[in-house]
Design the sequence.
């Protein structure tokens, strides 16, 4: 769900359509493209798990061998797709900044140059995030858990709830109210699960043995209580030590 949706791109496409009324509906452009994208993701997801089973990475392209022509061609096409679709990702918020704030009265000198400057700043910020987090999959999970759960489930459900409340019409047996509550609960559950697993992955990635890049000796911890260690299967709780290694090994927290 976090991969197939792009609220900013959807709004941009609808606003530039010749016939925007054909965007929604059971056979509208949004429904047909979403079904096509879902089929592609399910098909390649099944093939990836079928081939690599438990060894599959967060992105199946990471499992592809590097010494084969076909796999390298797939990676090149994947990078090319990201390069061509990247400007569309920031289209909406750049237009909002330019038309609503920076050039609101059309009195800005050299507006095209200023827009290019804003796009370069946006590119530098996103690139710096990629440099700070070499493994972007946990970060993508964290961002997707926040943005998609709120924008695609919780937010629309709250808007629908407020609209029905103002009209006083919840339908027969209040099915619209139950629908809104179901989407809100589902969004909260996905938000919590995504955030928890994203932080666990970040601690594993940056807090493992490979994330400890400093020359300082590891932080010594007191011996755990024998009773607690035996209750945990003879091992001290690794979460605290992993979190400390995460803080020390992550380049963000280095002075």
Sequence:
């Amino acid at each position: 769900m976090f991969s197939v949706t792009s609220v900013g791109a959807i709004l941009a496409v609808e606003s530039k359509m010749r016939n925007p009324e054909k965007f929604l509906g059971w056979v509208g452009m949004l429904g047909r493209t979403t079904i096509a994208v879902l089929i592609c993701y399910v098909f390649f997801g099944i093939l990836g798990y079928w081939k690599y089973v438990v060894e599959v990475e967060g992105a199946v392209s990471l499992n592809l061998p590097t010494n084969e022509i076909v796999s390298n061609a797939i990676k090149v096409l994947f990078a090319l797709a990201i390069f061509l679709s990247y400007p569309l990702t920031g289209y909406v918020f750049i237009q909002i900044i330019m038309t609503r704030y920076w050039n609101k009265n059309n009195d800005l000198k050299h507006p095209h140059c200023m827009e290019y400057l804003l796009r370069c700043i946006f590119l530098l910020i996103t690139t710096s995030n990629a440099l700070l987090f070499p493994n972007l999959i946990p970060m993508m999970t964290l961002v997707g858990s926040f943005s998609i759960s709120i924008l695609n489930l919780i937010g629309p459900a709250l808007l629908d709830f407020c609209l029905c409340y103002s009209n006083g019409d919840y339908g027969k047996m209040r099915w619209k109210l139950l629908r809104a509550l179901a989407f809100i609960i589902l969004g909260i559950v996905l938000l919590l699960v995504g955030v928890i697993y994203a932080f666990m992955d970040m601690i594993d990635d940056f807090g493992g043995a490979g994330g400890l890049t400093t020359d300082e000796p590891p932080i010594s911890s007191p011996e755990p209580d024998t009773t607690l260690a035996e209750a945990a299967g003879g091992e001290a709780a690794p979460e605290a030590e992993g979190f400390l290694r995460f803080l020390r090994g992550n380049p963000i927290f280095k002075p």
User: Anything to note?
Assistant: The two ends are 37 Å apart (CA to CA). The CA atoms of residues 110 and 116 lie 10 Å apart.
